Automatic annotation (TrEMBL):
Signal peptide: none annotated. SUPFAM superfamilies: P-loop containing nucleoside triphosphate hydrolases. InterPro entries: AAA+_ATPase (IPR003593), DUF815 (IPR008533), P-loop_NTPase (IPR027417). This is ATPase AAA family. CDD domains: AAA. It comes from the Bacteria. Residues 235-353 form the AAA+ ATPase domain. Pfam families: DUF815 (PF05673). PANTHER family: SLR0930 PROTEIN (PTHR42935:SF1).
């Protein structure tokens, strides 16, 4: 194995603490003949345990060793894989080196572990290559990652030549992507010590789709139109969804990401205290082959906060043009995002001057940076009833309509008033009581 790994060029620059490099070191010591058996068994088991943890976290199955190798190929963001993600596999000298690497990966896929098992008296690799995963709820792992890696693993197993192996993996890069962005829909961020941004996938993102949001057809139509233009490479605007709480603003954005993930749409959620990272965040994703929505939930600023000025410059108005693959979608309960007071109007001219005060203009200018503003308002009583009836039917709740709606009236009085969220909570309560 150590000889195979040493021949990797494009995919060979790996940290020494990775599973593959640690196993290569084990085989190197084994073949030297100068080793302590108990120590080598311990080192082997440590890496096998890491493979089991990775397999459990991602629900890998059948051949855990093949799944791991496929996972390595998917996650390796090198110049070749990133180029394939962007433009596909074009003719070029680099393909020669890539095919050489894929030849070595085919050798790893077919590697015979019988030698190490016989010399060390272990059978762990036989178990890994005939692995049976424990069934568990999908919420315990990222089903999207698991499904794609296992499918790729199976396709690579069937590749009968280096060229076919090359075609399988480069097609995956072009159609799905590379690294975390290729496998996941949504992310949160954190600042690293070097000032760069680290992306943490959101594994348990709500699977809601737009049809799950009852009503608000005009609002959904506007959001879909802007998003479709964005993913098709046409001109599109930043979007502000404002209005009453519980009306489906955040749900609409999650649904949009779910529906257009297959078209390369990704979401990065950022909080107000992270606005200082926006410039670095944008610089790290502007050249990727995805369309990114930077999502700001429940965005608002108090009168004495000045962070909105920085956000305003980043959205539009700074020296650097916003990349075409990035939009900002924000939700807020405030139409203008920033708290307004009567004193903001004190410098309005009293003689009929048509210009608003400078203070008010400064605050309103942030909301004006969003080219599309969509209002989500509390439903009327009849619209609330319509939502209740649709949700009850979807959940299989069989109650006489008069009883269903009478109880809904009682529920909303004690749970924040009429809203789509309140309706969903009421239906969840009924479904739980009847289960």
């Amino acid at each position: 194995m150590e000889k195979i790994v040493s021949k990797l060029l494009i995919y060979g620059d790996r940290p020494k603490d990775t599973i593959l490099m640690q196993l290569a070191a084990v085989f190197e010591d084994l073949h030297s003949g100068n080793y302590n058996k108990e120590d080598l068994v311990s080192r082997t088991y440590k890496q096998v345990k890491r493979l089991l943890v990775l397999g459990t976290d991602n629900a890998f199955d059948n051949n855990l060793w093949h799944n791991y190798l496929a996972y390595l190929l998917v996650m390796d963001e090198n110049p070749f894989s990133l180029c394939c993600e962007k433009v596909g596999s074009k003719d070029g000298s680099v393909n020669h080196f890539a095919i050489n690497d894929f030849h070595e990966f085919r050798c790893l896929f077919d590697y015979d572990f019988s030698e190490i098992e016989e010399k060390l008296g272990i059978d762990c690799f036989s178990c890994l290559t005939n692995y049976k995963a424990i069934e568990k709820p999908e919420l315990m792992y990222n089903g999207n990652v698991s499904e794609k890696v296992r499918a790729l693993s199976t396709a690579l197993e069937k590749a009968s030549s280096d060229e076919e192996f090359f075609n399988v993996i480069t097609s995956f890069y072009k159609n799905i992507g590379v690294g975390e962005f290729g496998l996941n829909k949504a992310f949160r961020i954190r600042e690293k010590k070097d000032g760069k941004v680290a992306f943490a996938p959101i594994n348990n993102m709500d699977k809601v789709v737009l049809d799950d949001l009852v009503g608000y057809e005009i609002q959904k139509k506007k959001l879909i139109a802007n998003t479709k233009a964005f993913i098709e490479g046409k001109k599109a605007n930043n979007v502000l969804l404002f209005g009453d709480s519980g009306t489906g603003k955040s749900t609409s954005i999650k649904a949009i990401v779910n529906e257009y993930y297959g078209d390369g749409l990704r979401m990065i959620e950022i909080y107000k205290h992270q606005f200082k990272l926006l410039s670095q965040l944008i610089s790290q994703i502007k050249n990727r082959n995805y369309k990114f929505i930077i999502y700001m939930d429940d965005l608002s600023f108090e009168e004495d906060e000045s962070d909105y000025k920085f956000l305003k410059a980043v959205i539009e108005g700074g020296v650097e043009t916003r990349p075409d693959n990035i939009l900002i979608y924000a939700t807020s309960n405030r139409r203008h995002l920033i708290k307004e007071t009567w004193k903001d109007r004190r410098d309005v001219e009293q003689d009929g001057d048509i210009h608003r005060s400078d203070t008010m203009e400064e605050k309103l200018s942030l909301a004006n940076r969003f080219g599309v503003t969509i209002g989500y308002y509390k439903p009327s009583r009849q619209e609330f009833y319509d939502i209740i009836k649709v949700l009850a039917k979807r959940s299989g709740i069989e109650l006489e309509e008069s009883v269903l709606l009478a109880e809904a009236d009682k529920w909303e009085l004690n749970h924040g008033g009429i809203s789509g969220r309140c309706a969903q909570q009421y239906i969840n309560h009924l479904a739980g009581a009847n289960s």
